[in-house]
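cron nightly-structures :: item 1 of 1
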Amino acid sequence: MLKLYSYNSSICAQKVRITLAEKGLAFDVQNIDLFTNEQFKPEYLKVNPKGVVPALDHDGKIVIESSLICEYIDEAFPQPPLMPADAFGRARMRLWSKEVDEHLFEATRELSFSAMFRERMRNMTEEQREGRFNNVGDAIKRERLMSTYERGVESPYVYQGIACFETAFGKMEKELSHGAWIVGDRMTLADINMMPFVARLDFLGLLDAWIADRPRIKDWWARARALPSFRAAIAEKTSEAEAAAMKKFGSPLLTRVRERREEYLRQPRAAA
């Protein structure tokens, strides 16, 4: 039996749900409401001591960390394969797992926060906001969120996020010159890793800031969105109200995001 501890709008949980859908696997879901801090309840911390989603329970065996969960699913349920057959192909695929885990996760969090989540916190009382920040156990993460709350798109952390996506999309456009998918002509976990992060930018109305002049990524994104697994894991799990809210608060930032991307591109290191 498979049980996924998840939250619909969690980008990390979304890539696990795409992987499960690609495998055609049935699974139970336990929703962990991140906005009411259910991830910090003692019963969930026994499942995932890090207090984040997702977590996968496979017949009593608990797997955490979304990139590891996706690889575990592919190894435990080999058909259809979602990793390249050769060692070099798997290494190339894992570079995208690292790109997401080490750079794009925080970049997406900051961009999301500077848009709709910042607005949510503005509507809280000062006591509620303080409680929200105090619940962030990691001091560096707390500093990033507080900066983004106070300065929005002008936060240096949002600028870093814009730069991270520029770097990733530059690599991605180049990789897609070799095939329809990131690591060749067959979809792999490299593509699945990227889909929720690109989807979040699209929901926020910000994606064109990076891909307007990248036709291969545009074509890849059209293929990704058409996948039944993408629709089941992301499109159908995002309510009209959620989609409208993301667009409402994200779209007004597009012009400034484009400007900050241009600032980054003018830097000698970015142009080298």
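cron nightly-structures :: done
The chain has 14 helices and four strands.
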